[in-house]
């Protein structure tokens, strides 16, 4: 077992096996800096340079000084996973039992308490794509909104279906969002839309991956190459206004029901850290076209939870799912995304789509948990929900655990504020 000379609380997501990357500042106006997290501490990675932590890495990474002193992760993401892994290993070496750089004597220079710093959006996000890769979720929405005898659309088992979203409204965990307004059909029935605040505000439990190494226009990325282009993963809440979405989505898909806000967890966990948690993907039947075939374990065993916290602070776990349920894996998503020659750029973000499991307690949205508002979701104080109320906070957690090793993502949280009164 890898043990650190720093104190890491039991059950911490941020063990020496993790070493994620993020951007922090010591206060709201402070300079944005690259950091990692170990236990309850945020570590300033640029300061470690002066202690010699990267001395073997600096020679092999061009412009290392610029990369480690940047105010976003984009430059780091771009150098490719092999080089990122050299940096990660150098950090692990510095904090493993023994303290070979005598860092313990200089903590005040690089160590911050996690709850005393401000976490920021970690990289400049380029394009954002949202997939629809959970068979359970696609089946549930088909059952609710289309033909119950034929819930999956004919293309679903052949294509990792997705849509292009909007990156301007992607926010970091802790950012509150106002209830959106727009066109909806009257809740009491009717076919003429009204202008209203959303009455069916929802979350979607998702994970997202960020592109590190870019590709060129016209080139395709094979399922075999795909993971070389994935810098790391994060928890993603794709907030959704179901009533706006339902009125607008035919024929061109999601639009204003989605792009009023999506929340990201603050730490990017690399695929190298997730390596011990690889798992077989679900069997794909019918057989996919050759460009979507893949070898090896391409899915990951990541526990997922959704908690609803009321205005009064009452917490209820309303869903427990797992990333492993996804029918289409990230390698297939990226291969499909680029098969027509579409290029991907460093900082592009690809979300999985709602991750629902096979049982009703593992559904990844209130739409499914309340079955389109026909059932109540019980909260631990005896109250209930069908969709989100103002001042509700949604907290999503994600972590892997195996043979005593834990690697987690922390959490993504966001509160729903009342609609902005600008009329
Ligand atoms: Mn979504």
Would you write up a description of this structure?
There is one protein chain. The protein has 423 residues and is an alpha+beta fold. The protein folds into 2 domains: 99 residues, SH3 type barrels (Roll); 290 residues, Alpha-Beta Complex (Fumarylacetoacetate hydrolase, domain 2). It contains 9 helices and 25 strands. The strands form 7 sheets. A 7-stranded mixed sheet has the order 7-6-21-13-14-16-8, with no helix packed on it. It has a 5-stranded antiparallel sheet with strand order 4-3-2-1-5. A 5-stranded mixed sheet has the order 9-25-24-19-20, with no helix packed on it. It is globular and about 70 Å long. The model has no long low-confidence stretch (mean pLDDT 96).
How would you sum up this structure in a few lines?
With 423 residues, the protein is α+β, with helices and mostly antiparallel strands.
